[in-house]
């Protein structure tokens, strides 16, 4: 049964009926007007509710929800900023390695034998990559002026041009199905990880990038199908295991923090870590319902996470 439309006053009354403390209804109405009930309340209320009564926990306030919402919003902005840095780097070195090996003709990246088609499954996936993404961009009109320019004036769109229009997911797939010498040329740019490890990391980062791009809740997100490989930093941070699996840093937000440690230049990573630490400290101060230890656990962080820069990556 669809939920009925509620005015702002009715939305506020509904929250109060669920025992949420709202001291300033004018402020609450303004926030609901700017953010929307679904994005603000439906997206974050479960963190402040008693699972038994379905009401808000004692002392929970409207400001608590706003603090969590704004934290997650700022976390998405921070994460996406550095994901784009990594994406740009991968685009550059992958297209360079591919063009150096196979040339800059568009036929090079449209030729299946220039990829790893050593199994039937890989051959099928390479076919999808070429036909559904690469070929489509050069055979149909696009909104990318640089692609249309090369079509019109050169009758050729080299990979170093096309790659700028590819999504992070497509770049990740292109790396996954590149031949070993191409993968090696890319992974060598990053200390401490090999070709299969980079593939796994890119799968996880693609998932988190999609969360950021679609404004979904980020800080509690966990990948459903992928995880990053076991890395030396898991062991050095003494992260506990559930059986053979590390409990933190595999498919949660801390996996992104670890991935960034390997893929970002050290100076950039220090800046990212500093900004992340400030965001976490601030929301812990502003929201009394979620203590620091619980917040870190929800995000998949060990308590000693700040030591991630104390240890060497390898």
Overview of the structural elements:
With about 325 residues, the chain is an all-alpha fold. It has helices at about 10-15, 25-35, 35-45, 60-100, 105-110, 120-140, 145-155, 160, 170-175, 180-185, 195-215, 230-235, 255-265, 265-285, 290-300, and strands spanning about 240, 245. Helix 11 crosses helix 13 (about 255-265). The radius of gyration is 23 Å and the shape is globular. It starts with 7 loop residues before the first helix and ends in a 15-residue tail after the last helix.
How would you summarize what this structure contains?
The chain is mainly alpha-helical. The protein contains 15 helices and 2 strands.
Q: Secondary structure elements and their pairing?
A:
Elements: H1 8-17, H2 25-35, H3 37-44, H4 62-102, H5 106-109, H6 120-139, H7 145-154, H8 159-162, H9 168-176, H10 180-187, H11 195-213, H12 232-236, E1 241-242, E2 245-246, H13 253-263, H14 266-286, H15 292-299
Antiparallel strand pairs: 1-2
Helix pairs in contact: 3-4, 4-10, 4-11, 4-14, 9-11, 11-13
């Amino acid at each position: 049964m669809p939920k009925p439309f509620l005015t702002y006053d009715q939305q506020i009354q509904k929250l109060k009926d669920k025992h949420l403390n709202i001291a300033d209804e004018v402020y609450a109405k303004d926030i609901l007007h700017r953010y929307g009930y679904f994005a603000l309340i439906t997206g974050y209320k479960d963190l402040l509710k008693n699972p038994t009564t379905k009401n808000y926990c004692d002392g929970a306030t409207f400001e608590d929800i706003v603090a969590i919402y704004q934290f997650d919003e700022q976390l998405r902005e921070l994460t996406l900023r550095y994901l784009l840095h990594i994406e740009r780097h991968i685009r550059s070195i992958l297209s360079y390695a591919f063009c150096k090996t196979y040339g800059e003709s568009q036929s090079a990246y449209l030729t299946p034998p220039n990829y790893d088609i050593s199994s039937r499954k890989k051959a099928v996936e390479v076919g999808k990559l070429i036909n559904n993404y690469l070929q489509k961009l050069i055979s149909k009109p696009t909104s990318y002026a640089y692609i249309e320019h090369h079509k019109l004036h050169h009758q050729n769109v080299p990979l170093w041009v096309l790659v700028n229009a590819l999504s992070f997911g497509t770049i990740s797939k292109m790396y996954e199905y590149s031949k070993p010498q191409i993968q090696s040329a890319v992974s060598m740019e990053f200390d401490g990880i090999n070709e299969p490890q980079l593939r796994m990391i890119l799968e996880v980062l693609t998932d988190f990038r999609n969360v950021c791009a679609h404004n979904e809740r980020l800080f509690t997100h966990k990948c459903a199908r992928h995880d990053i490989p076991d890395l030396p930093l898991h062991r050095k941070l003494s992260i506990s295991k559930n059986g053979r699996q590390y409990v933190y840093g595999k498919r949660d937000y801390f996996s992104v923090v670890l991935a960034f440690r390997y893929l970002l230049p050290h100076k950039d990573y220090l800046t990212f870590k500093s900004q992340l630490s400030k965001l976490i400290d601030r929301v812990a101060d502003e929201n009394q319902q979620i203590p620091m230890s619980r917040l870190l656990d929800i995000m998949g962080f060990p308590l000693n996470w700040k030591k991630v820069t104390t240890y060497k990556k390898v």
